[in-house]
Design goal:
The protein is an alpha+beta fold and 491 residues long. Helices cover 42% and strands 22% of the residues. The strands form five sheets. Strands 1, 5, 6, 10, 14, 17, 18 and 19 form an eight-stranded mixed sheet that branches. It has a five-stranded antiparallel sheet with strand order 7-8-3-12-13, with no helix packed on it. Helix 1 runs antiparallel to helix 14, helix 4 runs antiparallel to helix 13 and helix 11 crosses helix 12. The longest helix has 29 residues. It is elongated and about 115 Å long.
């Protein structure tokens, strides 16, 4: 029937004769571009056949070993780091945030020493702070008696301020600047002020050695702090950062004590990190309340989410939209929640599987600071007459800071893949070509040869399939007694 017709068609049309198949194998061995195989087939000497067989097998083994080693190296995700220094005609100036080391006005906290402790608790979401047991009772009494007290409004009103009396001189690249050119921001130092913040047009400098020139009056008589909590210095602390990022002090700020002149030379460093698995960054991570991704901004948003879930409110010092936490919530919920986040590692930084992995691109501003005493005798007399203050006041309150670029260049540190896909293919092709004389055409020839033999094997199996039930059926395969007798007579 139909099966018999299919068998006949396969035998006549698709399945070549045994001699044809042998001829195909010989022709393939003689004509393939895989070097050395034709020498094994065509040579008549058995010794030469064995030698060429050993050569071909040995070269093939070496090629496979080399290719495997390249694949193992590729899947170890190796990287290299390149450093490029690019010189330009002008370069963008960074944002600089300034804070007074004495955080509060003396008259406002003369009878409220607890304010220093409260602010440390509030800013504890940014910087670790442990409340000592000796302050606990005093703190509880104040919180119970002043439930409507707003530390945010108190700090903004009675903290450090920036006006013509505290900012005596301001000049950027030869042009005057004013207190209104600074933006207010809360940090662990209370009221701080950022120059060249993100809302302003980008400021550029086109000459090294010139930049931002400032003269501060810290007014030690007007502003004070609590030495028992570790705030024992007087002067200005500042940090340089990208205008699109928040300032991060946390022990990273530069300090300029009173009576000193700080010369700050900055450089621009751009770091580019590869995505996982070559590097530790994740390019698809976006922040909700920050324009660009940074680990500091991500860490703040992570803390804000956990605190808002646990306490039902949001600290004003963290980004986000939510009900502002009052003092009782800060002390009873937010402060323990921050401690819990630190202990359990709920907001981690660094690796690709952490909450806040490393950014794929990061702008940093390494600084070199040199100090000198502020003003000689003539300068002290000049400022004493100008400000109508004593020479001792000048030495104890004035701080001069000059911030400028070291040179008009920026450095790019880029992490790159040590082995790309194209380089891996080139390595594999080089090994095959060197040891086997093979190419992509050779691989296609081998695939065609394997596919042809596979088709012939499938045809053999299809031809045998209808006969299999007869082999396994004894009643059909074994002859009867009469058939045996007839067969013997015929024999």
């Amino acid at each position: 029937g139909i099966l018999e017709k299919i068998r006949l068609y396969l035998i006549k049309k698709l399945l070549p004769h045994l001699e044809d198949r042998r001829k195909y194998h010989r022709e393939f061995a003689s004509s393939t571009s895989f070097h050395g195989v034709h020498n094994i087939v065509q040579t008549q000497s058995k010794t030469r056949k064995v030698l060429w067989l050993l050569v071909v097998v040995g070269c093939l083994a070496i090629a496979i070993w080399q290719i495997c080693s390249r694949f193992i190296y590729y899947f170890s995700w190796p990287t290299t780091t390149t450093v490029v220094i690019q010189y330009v005609e002008n370069v963008k100036f960074p944002a600089v945030t300034f804070c007074n080391l004495n955080r509060f006005q003396a008259h406002a906290v003369s009878n409220l020493k607890i304010i220093f402790l409260i602010w440390n608790i509030v800013s504890g979401v940014l910087q670790k702070f442990a409340v000592q047991d000796k302050y606990s009772q005093e703190l509880n009494d104040f919180l119970l008696g002043n439930q409507n007290f707003s530390i945010k409004e108190f700090t903004k009103k009675n903290g450090f301020y920036l006006n013509s009396s505290t900012l005596l001189e301001c000049e950027f690249f030869g042009k005057p600047c004013y207190p209104q050119d600074f933006e207010h921001v809360f940090t662990e130092y209370g009221n701080c002020f950022t120059f060249n913040h993100n809302d302003l047009p980008a400021r550029k400098v086109s000459l090294s050695g010139r930049g931002l020139h400032l003269l501060f009056d810290v007014q030690q008589e007007q502003f004070t702090d609590e030495p028992a909590l570790g705030y024992t210095d007087a002067g200005i602390t500042f940090v340089t950062h990208s205008p699109k990022e928040l300032p991060r002090f946390d022990g990273l700020g530069l300090l300029t004590p009173v009576g000193m002149h700080a010369q700050v030379a900055i450089r621009q460093l751009k770091s580019i990190i590869q995505e996982y698995p070559w590097g530790e960054c994740k390019p698809d991570i976006k922040l909700q309340y920050h324009k660009i991704y940074s680990t500091n901004g991500c860490l703040q948003e992570c803390k804000a989410r956990y605190i808002q879930d646990w306490c039902g409110c949001l600290p004003f010092i963290l980004p986000g939209n939510g009900t502002e936490c009052d003092l009782l919530k800060f002390y009873n919920c937010v402060y323990p929640a921050v401690y819990d986040i630190e202990i359990k590692g709920l907001c981690t930084v660094g690796t690709h599987n952490s909450t806040c992995p490393a950014p794929c691109e990061e702008m940093d501003y390494p600084t070199t600071v040199t100090y000198s005493s502020f003003g000689g005798e003539k300068a002290i007399k000049y400022f004493s007459a100008k400000l109508k203050k004593s020479p001792e006041y000048i030495r104890q309150n004035l701080v001069r800071i000059d911030i400028k670029y070291h040179d008009l260049s920026y450095k790019i540190t880029q992490q790159q893949k040590a082995l790309t896909i194209s380089e891996l293919l080139a390595d594999v092709g080089g090994q095959l070509g060197l040891f086997c004389g093979a190419s992509m055409i050779t691989i296609i020839e081998l695939l065609e040869y394997i596919f042809t033999n596979f088709c012939w094997m499938c045809i053999f199996l299809l031809l045998k399939a209808p006969e299999m039930p007869q082999w396994n059926n004894p009643s059909q395969n074994q002859p009867t007694h009469k058939e045996k007798k007839k067969g013997i007579q015929e024999c």
